[in-house]
């Protein structure tokens, strides 16, 4: 049937998509391998924030990503295997760890984040049971290198209309 839609993923994006499709009159089936809200939406604590517009592949990530690959609790853990598909993906990841690609990715991710914030605000305005608050984000680091990285990221975001301040 033409009005039937399958949405894969029961996180904030999948649920929002399914709900909006239902409101437009479509019959929606939503599937997820886990209970809704337990995947990425759980891990990111429900944050929707444009200050995290830094792509994972960026200069200096090669050594860190190799360490992360071996740590099952890291943001880039991949089960090691002799897979041509995995080898191609890792090669493309390596090729993307340059400043030029990082800057192009930041532009796209920043615009996507700005759009998402506007969309969620509008969605909350249409649905009284949906809470959406913009209160900012506090980033804390135990090392001066971490503070420096956060300040560099804050400068990149400020150049794209997302201001921050160091405390």
Structure, described:
It is globular, with a radius of gyration of 19 Å. It has a two-stranded parallel sheet. The protein has 6 helices and 2 strands. The model has no long low-confidence stretch (mean pLDDT about 85). α1 links the parallel β1 and β2. It starts with a strand and ends in a 9-residue tail after the last helix. It is mostly helical. About 50% of the residues lie in helices and about 5% in strands.
Please work out how many helical segments DSSP would assign: 6
How would a textbook summarize the main sheet? 2 strands, parallel
Secondary-structure element order, as H and E? Answer: EHEHHHHH
Give Rg in angstroms.
19 Å
Oligomer: single chain
Distance between the termini: 56 Å
Helix content: 40-55%
Give the neighbour order of strands across the main sheet.
1-2
Please report the total strand number as a whole number: 2
Average pLDDT level: 83
Q: Helix/strand/pairing class, anyone?
A: mainly alpha
Proportion of residues in extended strands: 5-15%
Spatial shape = globular
Low-confidence stretches: none
Key features?
167 residues, mainly alpha, 6 helices, globular
What is the strand and helix layout of this fold?
Layout: E1 4-8, H1 12-23, E2 27-31, H2 40-43, H3 61-69, H4 84-95, H5 99-126, H6 144-158
Parallel strand pairs: 1-2
In short:
This protein is mainly alpha-helical. The protein contains 6 helices and 2 strands. β1, α1 (12-23) and β2 form a beta-alpha-beta unit.
């Amino acid at each position: 049937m033409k009005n039937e839609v399958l949405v894969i993923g029961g996180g904030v994006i999948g649920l929002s998509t399914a709900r909006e499709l239902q409101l437009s009159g479509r019959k929606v089936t939503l599937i997820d391998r886990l209970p809704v809200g337990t995947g990425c939406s759980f891990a990111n604590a429900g944050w929707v924030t444009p200050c995290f517009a830094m792509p994972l592949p960026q200069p200096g990530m090669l050594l860190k990503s190799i360490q992360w690959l071996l740590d099952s609790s890291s943001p880039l853990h991949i089960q090691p295997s002799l897979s041509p598909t995995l080898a191609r993906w890792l090669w493309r990841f390596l090729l993307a760890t340059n400043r030029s690609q990082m800057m192009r990715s930041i532009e796209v991710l920043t615009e996507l984040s700005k759009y998402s914030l506007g969309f969620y605000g509008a969605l909350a305005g249409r649905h009284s049971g949906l809470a959406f608050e913009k209160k900012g984000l506090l980033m804390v680091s135990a090392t001066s290198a971490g503070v420096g990285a956060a300040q560099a990221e804050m400068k990149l975001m400020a150049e794209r209309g997302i201001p921050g301040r160091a405390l």
